[in-house]
Here is the input.
Amino acid sequence: MEQTRVIDYSQFHSRLRIPGRLHLDTPLRIGAGGLPGATEVDLPVIKDAAQRPFIPGSSFKGAFRAHLESILRVFNNEFACGTLTDGVRCISQERINRWKSEYRDNAAGLSDKLLQETCWTCRVFGAPWLASKVLFKDMPVAPETWFGRYQERSGVGIDRDTETAGDKLLYATEAVPAGTEFEFEMMVENAGDLEQGLILLGIQEVARGQMTLGGARSRGLGWVHLNVKWDEAYRIDRTSLRHFLITGKGQPLADENARKKLVEDFLREVGGVHA
Ligand SMILES: [Zn+2]
Here is the structure.
């Protein structure tokens, strides 16, 4: 059954914008869904109309969310519901329906109840009842790092019946070479300070090269690191919105100590820092 979004943010509370450059430390493979035996490359990577590589924002978001979920579970399994079976997230449709009738004449009460029960990652990255606060743009390749050549690796498929490798089972896998860079941009709408701390924690991890991306990670592909353009990053809240609308300038995020404080406040909240 399709779930309906119960919570909607029609008011502006905050915005966070973080631009950067994603650098490939090892080749990257985000598959385009190849047709077996159809072309010279059986397992092509995803490309734009001009045959240049790009990274879909949704692929980055998936890896980013999964990475933060794995960190949050260290503190408490209930902070991240992503691995529960059958797509059931921290609140089932059955419980939502029950609360909807309980809070029939109290929309604010229903929102509060849902938010209370929603895990950290669903609150930030979205759930069927809650829109995502995080948007990742599709990431185009940085032209000066792209020389028009994909890396090709050939693999040998094993025939299951005979357990031999025949000529017909040779296949070619494509990857984007190491050293290629992509333009990164993320926007976060209406996240509270603690949620911004969680997101900055994730950004810090990618900046340190701790997150992997794409396929064939067990073969060493997909190691990346993010060079954040902190000088161009900003926050806006309700008090600085007016200034932003007039000047186009938000509150800078260039101060490392201010960013660390947001991360530390979040870690204190989830029990990762004992103050
Ligand atoms: Zn959840």
Q: What stands out?
A: The CA atoms of residues 14 and 237 lie 4 Å apart.
